[in-house]
């Protein structure tokens, strides 16, 4: 069993790899199927060593074939194995038919599902649908999946949970909610975003000994961000330095009653290593922000005017935290868009921007799904149904670097593969988290990182800080809880 790779593939790309292994590298298809079944059975033995009775649920095609291999191996190991099929086994062909016949030759017969069966088994093996499903799951398939999900029995899915899109992480109506998923040849990108993490459980991967040369012929669809490699960019600072060496960040926002947003962004920037942070906000907020965090420089602007000197001196501009959508906000947006300084737009700046239609190369946009929906003219549901397409479309329309926030945050810049952050947790679904992210990313830009480098590194610092803070519990996690963790992460080793 291999460690999880960084490269993520679509279902079609994985099939291409499978075909290359068979045709160009002369690995028999049944050998690959046997290796897949062995990989699942190894996980079964390692993770559930006390399991004695196994139910293998098979459908059609190679996913079912993998299931029959698991059943055969489990039987030979002395386990009590039941196998049911929702497809006509006489229609199985090729390797799947051979796997079925090899299992049947041991003297077994298929069973029918009964109401009490799922209460009597120790583990369910889901080999129903695999990556080939492309429409809503209905009928007896839906009923069985619902029964599996309702039962309090551990589930191992073969390659991908049945009913989950390998390409998007969306559900085809209903899907098996697995405890473990064992993925083969190419790690499926849908396992990491949208509904994928909720349904896949813990992930295991096996390349089935497909030669490395095969992977050079098939491009990955996405790539996982790797914190261990990214943190190497955070090198020690020279001793002979001063605050101006680490960037002057301008944070703009904080309409009436929303001063907290700009303070969070500003303080996150300082904790991320920014040398100077100036906030422009409503005059009524200046005293409160200065009192709460005296390290921040705060300027009040009643009419939404930014001093030219500040625009010229800043190394990066953040516009959006608590900005609002009134005339004050529009004045600020207009001035920021006239500047060619590196900039990050978030929150209401994106909502105001949705009426614009000009691409730029000097900005980072960090929408959540709702903001992305407004920018593209779709519903939030449509964005979540295909987050990979959405981030790519955002980049094509608006340019720069796009950070599509959410479960499995995506980062995209022009002509580069989509990158996915595998870190973070549900405790981060709380007010102010996006403001903190904006401050982190912009602070890194101010310290000399490119827009794409800052986006990748900042997204991971933010998510990893959330994971560290959540060690005390996800519920009740606040955005400001990340500050101490951010400082630790940007000072590795």
Key traits:
20 helices, 17 strands, elongated, eleven-stranded mixed beta sheet, UDP-N-acetylmuramoyl-L-alanine:D-glutamate ligase, 15% strand, alpha/beta
Write the layout of secondary structure elements.
Layout: E1 7-8, H1 11-23, H2 29-47, E2 53-58, H3 61-76, E3 80-85, H4 94-104, H5 117-120, E4 123-127, H6 139-150, E5 155-158, E6 180-184, H7 196-200, E7 202-206, H8 212-215, E8 222-224, H9 227-230, E9 248-252, H10 259-271, E10 276-281, H11 286-292, E11 297-300, H12 308-313, E12 316-319, H13 327-338, E13 343-345, H14 348-353, E14 363-365, H15 369-376, H16 380-385, H17 387-398, E15 401-404, E16 410-413, E17 418-420, H18 433-446, H19 451-469, H20 482-489
Parallel strand pairs: 2-3, 2-4, 4-5, 5-6, 6-7, 8-17, 9-10, 9-12, 10-11, 12-13, 13-14, 14-15
Antiparallel strand pairs: 1-8, 15-16, 16-17
Please give a quick description of this structure:
The chain has helices at 11-23, 29-47, 61-76, 94-104, 117-120, 139-150, 196-200, 212-215, 227-230, 259-271, 286-292, 308-313, 327-338, 348-353, 369-376, 380-385, 387-398, 433-446, 451-469, 482-489; strands spanning 7-8, 53-58, 80-85, 123-127, 155-158, 180-184, 202-206, 222-224, 248-252, 276-281, 297-300, 316-319, 343-345, 363-365, 401-404, 410-413, 418-420.
Describe what you observe in this structure:
With 493 residues, the chain is α/β, with parallel strands linked by helices. The chain folds into two domains: 7-223, YjeF N-terminal domain (Rossmann fold), CATH 3.40.50; 227-489, 3-Layer(aba) Sandwich (UDP-N-acetylmuramoyl-L-alanine:D-glutamate ligase). It is built from 20 helices and 17 strands. It has helices spanning 11-23, 29-47, 61-76, 94-104, 117-120, 139-150, 196-200, 212-215, 227-230, 259-271, 286-292, 308-313, 327-338, 348-353, 369-376, 380-385, 387-398, 433-446, 451-469, 482-489, and strands at 7-8, 53-58, 80-85, 123-127, 155-158, 180-184, 202-206, 222-224, 248-252, 276-281, 297-300, 316-319, 343-345, 363-365, 401-404, 410-413, 418-420. The strands form two sheets. It has an eleven-stranded mixed sheet with strand order 1-8-17-16-15-14-13-12-9-10-11, with helices on both faces. A six-stranded parallel sheet has the order 3-2-4-5-6-7, covered by helices on one side. It is elongated, with a radius of gyration of 26 Å. 52% of the residues are buried. The mean pLDDT is 96.
């Amino acid at each position: 069993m291999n460690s999880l790779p960084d490269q993520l593939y679509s279902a079609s790309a994985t099939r291409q790899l499978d075909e290359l292994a068979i045709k160009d590298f002369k690995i028999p298809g049944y050998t690959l199927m046997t290796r897949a079944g062995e990989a699942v059975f190894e996980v079964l033995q390692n993770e559930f060593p006390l399991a004695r009775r196994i139910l293998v649920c098979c459908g059609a095609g190679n996913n079912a074939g993998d299931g029959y291999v698991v059943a055969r191996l489990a039987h030979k190991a002395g386990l009590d194995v039941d196998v049911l099929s929702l497809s006509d086994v006489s229609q199985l062909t090729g390797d799947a038919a051979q796997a079925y016949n090899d299992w049947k030759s041991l003297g077994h017969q298929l069973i029918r599902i009964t109401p009490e069966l799922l209460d009597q088994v120790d583990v369910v093996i889901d080999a129903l649908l695999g990556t080939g499903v492309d429409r809503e799951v209905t009928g007896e398939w839906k009923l069985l999946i619902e029964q599996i999900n309702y039962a309090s029995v551990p589930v191992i899915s073969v390659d991908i949970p049945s009913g989950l899109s390998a390409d998007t992480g969306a559900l085809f109506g209903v899907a098996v909610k697995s405890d473990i998923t064992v993925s083969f040849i190419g790690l499926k990108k849908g396992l990491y975003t949208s509904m994928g993490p909720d349904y896949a459980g813990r992930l295991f991967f096996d390349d089935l000994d497909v030669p490395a040369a095969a992977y050079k012929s098939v491009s990955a669809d996405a790539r996982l961000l790797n914190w261990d490699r990214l943190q190497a960019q955070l090198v020690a600072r020279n001793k002979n330095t001063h605050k101006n060496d680490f960037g002057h960040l301008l944070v703009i926002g904080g309409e009436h009653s929303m001063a907290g947003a700009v303070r969070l962004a500003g303080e996150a920037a300082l904790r991320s290593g920014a040398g100077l942070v100036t906030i422009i906000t409503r005059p009524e907020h200046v005293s409160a922000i200065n009192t709460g965090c005296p390290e921040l420089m705060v300027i009040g602007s009643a009419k939404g005017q930014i001093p030219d000197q500040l625009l010229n001196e800043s190394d990066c501009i953040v516009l959006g935290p608590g900005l609002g959508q009134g005339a004050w906000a529009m004045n600020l947006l207009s001035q920021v868009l006239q500047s060619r300084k590196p900039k990050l737009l978030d929150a209401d700046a994106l909502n105001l921007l949705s009426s614009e239609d000009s691409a730029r190369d000097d900005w980072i946009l960090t929408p959540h799904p709702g903001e992305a929906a407004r920018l593209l003219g779709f519903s939030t549901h449509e964005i979540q149904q295909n987050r990979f397409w959405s981030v790519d479309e955002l980049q094509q329309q608006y340019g720069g670097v796009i950070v599509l926030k959410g479960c499995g945050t995506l980062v995209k810049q022009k002509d580069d593969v989509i990158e996915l952050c595998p870190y973070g947790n549900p405790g981060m679904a709380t007010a102010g988290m996006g403001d903190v992210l904006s401050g982190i990313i912009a602070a890194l830009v101010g310290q000399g990182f490119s827009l794409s480098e800052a986006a990748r590194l900042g997204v991971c610092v933010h998510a990893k800080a959330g994971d560290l803070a959540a060690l005390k519990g996800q519920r009740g996690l606040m955005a400001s809880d990340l500050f101490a963790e951010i400082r630790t992460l940007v000072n590795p080793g």
